[in-house]
Prior knowledge:
This protein is of the alpha+beta class and 365 residues long. The protein has helices at residues 2-16, 63-74, 86-106, 186-191, 196-212, 217-221, 225-243, 264-311, 313-329, 357-364; strands spanning 107-110, 114-120, 123-128, 131-134, 141-147, 152-156, 164-166, 172-183, 247-258, 335-337, 345-347. It is rod-shaped and about 180 Å long. It has 10 helices and 11 strands. Helix 5 (196-212) crosses helix 7 and helix 8 crosses helix 9 (313-329). The longest helix has 48 residues, at 264-311. Strands 6, 7, 8 and 9 form a 4-stranded antiparallel beta sheet that branches. Strands 3-2-5 form a 3-stranded antiparallel beta sheet.
Amino acid sequence: MTTMRGRGAALAAMLNEGGPWGGDKPGGGKSGGDSGGSGGGPRNPWNMPPDGGKPVRGRGPSAIDALYKRARVGFGGGGGGLPSIGWPVWGYAALGLALLWIAVTCVHRINPQERGVVTRLGKYSRTLDPGVSITFPAPIDRVQTIDVQNIRTINIPEGAGEKLVLTGDQNIIDLDYSVRWNIKSPELYLFQLADPDATITAVAESALRAAVANVSLNDAIGSGRTGIEAEVAQRMQLLLDRYRAGVRIQGVAIKRADPPDAVNDAFKAVSAAQQEAQTSINQARAYAQQIIAKAQGDAASFDRVYVQYKLAPEVTRRRMYYETMEEVLAKVDKTIVEPGGVNSYLPLGNGARTTPPAAQTGGQQ
């Protein structure tokens, strides 16, 4: 920069002196050749008249001198010499920054999972789809990108608080649940609701209380939780669509369903007693089923025997007698005595029945 300024000053001095052909001295004299060519120096071509004729002594400045003076005044040079070259450099830099600003704020790249919401002078204009789009430069147009595929989660209640809800059978239950949602319409999400998260939380609490108020405590704690979750999600979607919130409810999950802490111990004791009673009832029913099945089997067997008895009564009686004696005698010790005065006996099984020691002692006495 210093070198350029030095060269500019030298060039200005040379031009002020009339260039290489000389110029007017301050006192009115000539240095080098004059405009008329009477001196020893070469004739100055810049002082030639426009019509190509001979130069006239005492004539005003030439056209190039007048152009140079006007240019020097236009660039801010009031005195002798060329103006400083700093202003044009800063001008070009400002122009480059302005062009860069226009290029950056006019071209927008929207990712596949995003949408771009365009506001023109603060008012909603349009929504940009994924890809490369062009808008007016800022601050005329402003683009805000919104991720529409990101699943957001709201936990109710936040922290270690309680969320007490009244059931349909006039009991109180403490619920912890979460709501999953994403953005369906970016322009509605940005401009329709002042605080979308707070609105979704309030709608979730209202929908949950309305759903739990129609079920009993046992259903809310046990098997009815899945139905409650589906009903809450449906109610929330209807309310948010009515508010034009621009969100989509992906699901509701009940993470904990317990009685309040003040009565939790007593409730657990009652639940344990109910489970024991139900266990006893189930065992009694199983025993009754076994007895009924055995009785039905005995009745079916008796019916089969009766059918055979009707066909051959005598044979059936003997068969029943032998089967009964076989069943009875199989459980006792037996001694078989041959008839005809035979004194020998044949011990079967473990031999003859032994007499207990106490009985032998009593007989001796």
